[in-house]
Specification:
heterodimer, A: alpha+beta, six-stranded mixed β-sheet, 11 helices, elongated, B: mainly alpha, Sorting_nexin_N (chain A), lipid-binding (chain A), transport (chain A)
């Protein structure tokens, strides 16, 4: 898959485009360790099969031809040897940084192993600029060889048009050193329906193979209507920001998936200036997606015959996924309530601040009056802190949880695909059985003229059955790998975001300490 | 003011008065009040219910032979708390404001304690025998509910006087009235708004606790990936739990210092309003008396009697006036001082809490960053 990278990567380009700073995803294709086998198979085309350097436990069921084994493009050191034991991400670190000019989230993944991680955007005002420099240093620190990068950012939302036909256009910027891209830095403008269209295309191609397809952000009639109508208030701005951040995370997840990155539709999305307008994106609304996902669970429940012992794994895993989805929903609701209460605290603090200011203005004792005015100011500053913390709560925690609820839905879809393949196999086997019985009947009835047809039928169905068996094995293997990849990523994501959340909490707390320290002498000076 | 004789003074130290305990029996709250005797190292402890406090207040109002009583600003007594089950928090909040919050009647006890300390610290009021008896006698002050004092006698008149705008006898008092009206209204508003803030802080604490508990449900030991995820969730749960405790602490700090202070300030402003009314009434009464006597005496032509009476009236008036002026000075410096102390206490508490939690979050952050190195 990474054959097009070659052995001598070009040097990292200087970034002329300073306006957008990107996430760095390091794609390492030059590690010596176990690449000999792997690189023989690499070609430039996207869907050529790749044999992992050391086969996983179920390696026996793979065949050379037609096997589609995904391998994370960006860790050349480790193929997917044994999925469960090896922690592929020990060295990967993920950082969230902010630029001071544009408000966008960045995600940097350093180290030889990297996988899809999610970023959220935290508005500028929250993080100190010093956070920005950190990741670059770490990146340099951990560079152990030549690395390829792919950074994606979604920025600059602009309203195009007026009235009900208006839409928001977003700038999608890519910066990369991957050889498969002719340009190293490029950007295009896309609208929301383009993202949905991309999802549709990817889904059509890859979900059949058992891939977990990252779900796109949800449609919102209310939110968009406000924007269209031109309501210039904070809720529209919040909505646009929320959507921009969600689109960015969505794209980052897509390109973090090794096979999706190879998909020409994805490349076209990133590179091509004008995309044909995506239509029929109706089915991708929130409720539509949900319906699709719920069908998956029902299908799985109908599977009565177990294929082999790995089915236990699938059954219990699916149960786990469903449970987790419920849990995450509950967590999301809890965080939502937290966010709302914090908003209320902002309001109440502001009101209190005003009332204290008024008290200070009529107070005759001058030192007390001054102290009260200072108090009003302190409360005002605290209101801003609460406001920022609300953003943190929302963009770090709430959106993370919401993303994962939807991702888990995508995981369930993945299981459904496997079910479909299984059912097709069952049906084929049953048809084969019928053909064999028909042949036996013909033999017995001694009708030689139809015998040839029957034999042909049997041959046809025998090859179908063996094809479907291989398909099923392949899908099973894919789904399993996908799930394990997903789980590892999830743990990493959550850890990443908790660290971010803690950092923001700590930041707020330090500011709070400063405010109190500044206020104390004022109070002590009252005579 | 005349210096009182030793035996009329309070036998305990004003600053040592503490409400050390409160027990609830059905509807009745019983307070344990401890204080330190002045001339020995012995401590005293008595048990009182709200009605006893009320008795004390009435006794203070109705002291006889206390010249200039009408000029005194009486420390405000908090309203009676109604702890019965049927009393929901909203009702309690309406009735007592800040004092209804806090655990186990902490704030309420603090307010009562403060009241006792203020009375004991007042140069005139401390001499009231009722106070000494209240603080020392093991038996409760008894059922003497009869004496109502000038306040109640004139309670109706108070309302009417306030409605009409009478010229105060002195511009000084007029100014005070205006300032007081403003301050009283604004203090009340500020107190209410702080109450809103504290309620929201408590709600936030609750929401955090709920979130933290929900995170515990994510624990799953099935396989390596699940274990890793569980670890992460538990970590987040710890963090959120810390945020929960942070909010609780912040709310309680707000309550115990600034909340109490603002509430007290608010009630003191109300007390000053009452004082003004009482003053006005007293002055009015004196005027009326003067007129009355004047009419009577007009018939008699005993000039000496007239003049003597006039002098007596003026003397009484001047006494009230000077007491009043002293009181208002004392009141202002005292309230500024009280408010200052509450503000300092509040600021220091919040600063310590903020530092404490900054440290805690920092530790959590370290632990989080090291999570995969375990």
């Amino acid at each position: 898959m990474s054959g097009s990278f070659g052995r001598n990567p070009p040097p990292l380009p200087d970034s002329e485009d300073q306006e957008a700073e990107f996430d760095t995803r390091v794609l390492d294709s030059d590690e010596e360790e176990e690449d000999e086998e792997g690189e023989d198979i690499f070609t430039g085309a996207r869907s050529k099969p790749i044999t992992p350097t050391s086969a996983p436990d179920e390696g026996d069921i793979f065949s050379e031809e037609g096997s589609y084994i995904r391998r994370d493009v960006h860790h050349a050191t480790n193929g997917l040897h044994s999925d469960e034991e090896l922690d592929l991400f020990t060295e990967a670190t993920v950082e969230l940084t902010l630029t001071s000019t544009t408000s966008q989230g960045r995600r940097e993944i350093t180290g030889p192993t990297a996988s899809a991680c999610n970023t959220t955007h935290v508005p500028n005002s929250i993080l100190k600029p010093s956070v920005v420099t950190k990741t670059m240093e770490e990146l340099e620190e951990e560079e152990s060889g030549d690395k390829f990068e792919l950074n994606i950012a979604v920025t600059n939302p602009e309203k195009i048009g007026d009235g009900m036909n208006a839409y928001m256009s977003y700038k999608v910027s890519t910066r990369t050193t991957l050889p498969m891209f002719p340009n190293k830095m490029f950007s295009v403008r896309r609208r929301f329906s383009d993202f949905l269209g991309l999802y549709e295309k990817i889904s059509a191609k890859h979900s059949l193979l058992g891939c977990i397809i990252p779900p796109p952000p949800q449609k919102s009639v209310v939110g968009m209507t406000k924007v269209k109508v031109g309501k210039e208030d904070s809720s529209s701005a919040e909505f646009v920001e929320k959507r921009r951040a969600a689109l960015e995370r969505y794209l980052q997840r897509v390109v973090a998936h090794p096979s999706l990155l190879q998909d020409p539709d994805v490349r076209e999305f990133l590179e091509r200036d004008e995309l044909p307008r995506a239509v029929n994106t109706q089915t991708l609304s929130g409720p539509g997606l949900l319906k699709m996902i719920n069908r998956a669970s029902d299908a799985v429940n109908k599977m009565t015959i177990k294929m082999n012992e790995s089915d236990n794994w699938f059954e219990s895993k699916l149960q786990e996924v469903e449970n987790e989805e419920q849990l995450l929903r509950r967590l999301h609701a809890a965080v939502d309530s937290l966010v709302n209460h914090r908003k209320e605290l902002c309001i109440n603090t502001a009101v209190f601040s005003k009332s204290v200011a008024m008290l200070g203005s009529v107070e005759e004792n001058s030192a007390l009056s001054r102290a009260l005015s200072q108090l009003a100011e302190v409360e005002d500053k605290m209101e801003q802190l609460h406001q920022q913390q609300t953003f943190s709560d929302f963009f770090i925690l709430a959106e993370l949880l919401a993303d994962y609820v939807r991702l888990l839905g995508a995981v369930r879809c993945c299981f459904e695909q496997r079910m479909k393949v299984w059912q097709r196999l069952q049906e084929a086997q049953s048809t084969l059985q019928k053909k064999r019985e028909a042949e036996a009947k013909l033999l017995w009835a001694n009708k030689p003229e139809k015998l040839q047809q029957a034999k042909d039928d049997i041959n046809e169905w025998e090859s179908k059955v063996s094809q479907y068996e291989r398909d099923f094995e392949r899908v099973t293997c894919t789904v399993r790998k996908e799930v394990l990849r997903f789980e590892k990523e999830r743990a990493r994501d959550f850890k990443h975001y908790i660290v971010k959340y803690l950092e923001s909490l700590l930041h707020t707390q330090h500011r709070l300490v400063k405010y109190w320290e500044d206020f104390l002498p004022e109070v002590k000076a009252i005579a | 003011m005349e210096v009182s004789s030793a035996e009329a003074a309070l036998s305990v130290s004003a600053s040592s008065i503490r409400i050390t305990d409160v027990t609830q029996d059905g509807d009745v709250l019983t307070f344990a009040i401890a204080s330190q005797k002045l001339n020995s190292s012995a401590g005293v402890c008595v048990f009182r219910i709200y009605e006893d406090f009320d008795w004390l207040q009435q006794s203070l109002f109705s002291q006889e032979n206390l010249p200039g009583l009408q000029g005194i600003i009486f420390p405000p007594l908090p309203s009676k708390a109604l702890p019965s089950q049927s009393n929901t928090q909203t009702k309690a909040l309406k009735q007592l404001g800040f004092l209804a919050l806090g655990q186990d009647w902490q704030s309420y006890c603090k307010a009562l304690e403060f009241y006792l300390q203020q009375v004991a610290a007042h140069p005139t009021l401390c001499k009231c025998k009722a106070l000494d008896s209240f603080l020392i006698n093991s038996e409760s002050p008894g059922k003497q509910r009869g004496r109502k004092g000038i306040f109640n006698r004139l309670s109706q008149a108070v309302e009417e006087m306030r409605k009409e705008s009478h010229k105060d006898v002195d511009n000084f008092f007029q100014n005070e009235r205006n300032k007081n009206t403003n301050l009283a209204a604004l203090s009340k508003v500020a107190t209410e708004k702080l109450l809103d803030v504290v309620m929201t802080e408590q709600k936030l604490a609750l929401a955090c606790g709920h979130f933290a508990t929900s995170l515990h449900l994510c624990v799953n030991q099935d396989d390596a990936a699940a274990v890793a995820f569980s670890k992460v969730c538990l970590k987040l749960s710890d963090v959120i739990e810390a945020v929960n405790r942070n909010f609780e602490k912040v709310a309680s700090n707000d309550l115990s210092t600034l909340g109490l202070g603002l509430d007290l300030e608010s009630r003191y402003q109300e007390a000053e309003k009452v004082w003004e009314c009482v003053l006005m009434i007293a002055c009015k009464l004196i005027e009326l008396e003067t007129v009355k006597k004047g009419t009577e005496k007009a018939k008699a032509s005993k000039r000496e009697v007239m003049e003597a009476f006039q002098k007596a009236v003026e003397k009484e008036f001047n006494l009230i006036s000077s007491v009043a002026k002293q009181e208002i000075e004392r009141f202002h410096s005292s309230r500024v001082n009280v408010l200052k102390n509450f503000l300092i206490g509040w600021c220091e508490l919040q600063l310590n809490t903020a530092k404490e939690f900054a440290e805690l979050y920092s530790q959590h952050l370290e632990a989080c960053r090291n999570m995969y190195s375990e």
